[in-house]
């Protein structure tokens, strides 16, 4: 490699960053890979609702894949490890983490009810870690995997990215309701038009489908 090539080569990173521990003490981590100085900062969250884990292998494939030179990619494979362990939507205290974020948060239902939003915004360690990470990184694009409506959110996120993603993975774009206290809704108040939901189909993704979704994210991080 010549000196000129060396100076033009982008120094990419790959590091695992502990964010904290869940209510029951399970570690929650982020993997940062790519170019930390890139203007394009992409956050991928594989699983928020514990009974919707199909995005986890997609997140794992991304974290194990090549580090993009033109983006700073952040991968949180599971934000709700206690919910995954018990295959329940909420965290160990029965809070729906996707109703626990500050944007338009409101009390709703009793503890343990399906969409219980917690006693106050960011009352749960899991949502607090995500909020801390989002405040620090300020992702220009956020992709949050859920199940099982099999659509790509076409509401508040980056329109062109949402629609290309939908085409790439073969899901229809659809306007989803932005629920009070949702993670993407809050992220979009910090960085307007940045975050969107991908509703995967039910069940597990095939290995081929995992590759297709990971490739669709890589197109977002590509040059
Ligand atoms: Zn969900």
Quickly list its features:
7 helices, Aminopeptidase, 20% strand, 223 residues, 8-stranded mixed sheet
Put the structure in a nutshell.
The protein is α/β, with parallel strands linked by helices and 223 residues long. Helices cover 30% and strands 20% of the residues.
Describe it.
The chain is built from 7 helices and 8 strands; from the N terminus they run αβββαβααββαβαβα. It has 223 residues and is an alpha/beta fold. The protein has a single domain, classed as 3-Layer(aba) Sandwich (Aminopeptidase). α2 crosses α7 and α5 packs antiparallel against α7. The longest helix has 15 residues. The protein is globular and about 55 Å long. The two termini are 22 Å apart. It binds zinc ion (ZN). The site of zinc ion (ZN) has 4 residues, from loops.
Q: Helicity level, as a percent range?
A: 25-40%
Q: What is the topology, as strand order, of the major beta sheet?
A: 1-2-4-3-5-8-6-7
Provide the CATH superfamily. Zn peptidases
Taking pLDDT < 50 over at least 5 consecutive residues as the criterion, the unreliable ranges are none
* The level-1 CATH class: Alpha Beta
Identify the overall geometry.
Answer: globular
Write down the domain tally. Answer: 1
Strand content: 15-25%
Element-level helix/strand string:
HEEEHEHHEEHEHEH
Mean pLDDT: 95
CATH fold type: Aminopeptidase
Main β sheet profile: 8 strands, mixed
The ligands bound in this entry are:
zinc ion
CATH architectural type: 3-Layer(aba) Sandwich
Supply the helix-strand structural class. Answer: alpha/beta
Could you tell me the number of beta strands? Answer: 8
Rounded to an integer in angstroms, the radius of gyration calculated over CA atoms is 17 Å
């Amino acid at each position: 490699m010549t000196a000129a090539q060396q100076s033009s080569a982008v120094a990419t990173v790959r590091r695992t960053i502990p964010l904290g521990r869940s209510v029951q003490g399970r570690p929650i981590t982020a993997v940062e890979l790519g170019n930390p100085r890139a203007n394009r900062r992409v956050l991928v969250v594989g699983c928020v609702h514990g009974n919707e884990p199909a995005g986890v292998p997609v997140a794992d494939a991304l974290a194990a894949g090549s580090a993009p030179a033109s983006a700073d990619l952040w991968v949180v494979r599971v934000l709700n490890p206690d919910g995954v362990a018990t295959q329940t939507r909420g965290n160990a205290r029965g809070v729906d983490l996707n109703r626990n974020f500050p944007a338009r948060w409101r009390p709703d239902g009793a503890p343990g009810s399906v969409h219980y939003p917690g006693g106050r915004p960011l009352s749960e360690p899991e949502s607090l870690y995500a909020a801390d990470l989002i405040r620090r990184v300020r992702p220009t694009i956020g992709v949050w995997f859920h199940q099982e409506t099999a659509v790509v959110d076409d509401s508040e996120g980056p329109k062109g990215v949402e629609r290309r993603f939908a085409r790439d993975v073969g899901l229809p774009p659809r306007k989803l309701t932005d629920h009070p206290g949702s993670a993407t809704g809050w992220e979009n108040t910090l960085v307007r038009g940045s975050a969107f939901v991908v509703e995967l189909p039910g069940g597990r993704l095939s290995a081929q489908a995992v590759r297709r979704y990971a490739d669709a994210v890589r197109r977002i991080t590509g040059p």
